[in-house]
Amino acid sequence: MNDSISRRTVIRGAAWSVPVIAAAIATPLAAASEAPQSLRKRLTFNTKRAYDTNPWDPYLGATKPRIGVVVAAMDITGSDAVGAVILVVTIRDSAGKQQAQSTTKLIERGWGATPDWTVTFDNVARGSYAVTLTATANGCEPITLQLDERTAS
């Protein structure tokens, strides 16, 4: 009886094991690197308004405008909850000064909306100002809206 293994047997065994090892390594890698799902278009702005809360007063004189902005996002397409929505309000005044504030609100069920969020910007220069609203949520396409240019009196 010969206990030695021939080179041909070793090479034949190795040739059969390479595809098995390659498949064993590739399977978890393929699962871990799954292509991301495309973002869903399901957000819109539900509430969106801006106003001067401290207009020029003929008796008090020229105080700096204080701009108030109210915004909320709404889920327009789904029965599952969107979850956390990040709302960002950015204002750029006539002097070119830019200010931004953000918050996180929840859409807790499908077809729902975030609560209204009110934010104020102080020391805004008199004249025209622009307000940009942005909403982002996990798995949703981000949305941005530029409100019509307004004037702080």
Mind explaining what this structure looks like?
The protein is an alpha+beta fold. The chain has one domain: Immunoglobulins (Immunoglobulin-like, Sandwich). 17% of the residues lie in helices and 41% in strands. The protein has one helix and eight strands, in the order H-E-E-E-E-E-E-E-E. Strands 3, 4, 6, 7 and 8 form a five-stranded antiparallel beta sheet that branches. The chain has a three-stranded antiparallel beta sheet with strand order 1-2-5, with no helix packed on it.
How many helical elements? 1
Can you tell me the CATH class? Mainly Beta
CATH architecture designation: Sandwich
Q: Could you list the spans in which at least 5 consecutive residues all have pLDDT below 50?
A: 29-36
Any idea what the radius of gyration is? 29 Å
- The structural domain count equals 1
